[in-house]
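Open question from group meeting: does this chain pack into something compact, or does most of it stay loose? Before anyone orders reagents, we agreed to write out a predicted structure and look at it together. Recording both the input and the output here so the notebook holds the full record.
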Amino acid sequence: MRRMRLSKEFRDQFIQHEMRTHGRKNGFVTDGQEARLLKWLPVIGLPKEKTLADANLPEGTPLVMEIGFGNGDFLVHLAQTHPDWLLIGVEIYLPGVAKAVCRMDDAGLIERCRITQLPAQFVLTNQVAEEQLDGIFVNHPDPWPKVRHHKRRIIQKDFAALMVSRLKKGGFIKLATDKPDLAEWMRDILDVTPGLTNVAGVGGFIERDADRPETKFEQRGIKAGRISQFLHYIKA
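Structure tokens returned:
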């Protein structure tokens, strides 16, 4: 593999490089991945100056977001199992964006998603309107295990309130992690977030969805002897 040779104009519009985030952002893409980024991001990308209202979305289509989609496995699964949904994929790691675009393209589902490499906080604050989303998935977010780094975890009180404000009434938030400490952290924050109801009851976790695939990160946890836990909230 080699370093990307995307044009400055393309990078300035679609690639996240100046906003402060924790974790990896940019990296390497192959020639084939670069070609597909250049083909598809002008069509399905969500650059920083646009909102979902500018994204040519079919009217009345349920909008479901996956925050941190990794290499796109779960995004493809959602597109295949929910053909009525339009998916908003948020991922700051460029190689993950490239892989997801290729996988969605290979599956013939690429036009049923909108992709951004911008941070989720920016996307929800600036590009998503209040009560615009029907659901949000957060799968295996970075656990930031050291106590001094817990402030970097994506699920915080302010971020939870932001997610709720962008959900329609009856909309959902579903989360997954194989880190028990992080599972309890997310549950404890979301259980007391105004407007949310824990489907499993306060303090509870749901059973794994029957059709849920094992993502790359979940498989890593299984190999290490860790079992994933799942949370499901509904906006009242």
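Observations to bring back to the group:
The beta strands are 2-3, 28-29, 63-67, 86-90, 113-116, 133-139, 167-177, 196-198, 229-235.
The chain has one domain: 2-235.
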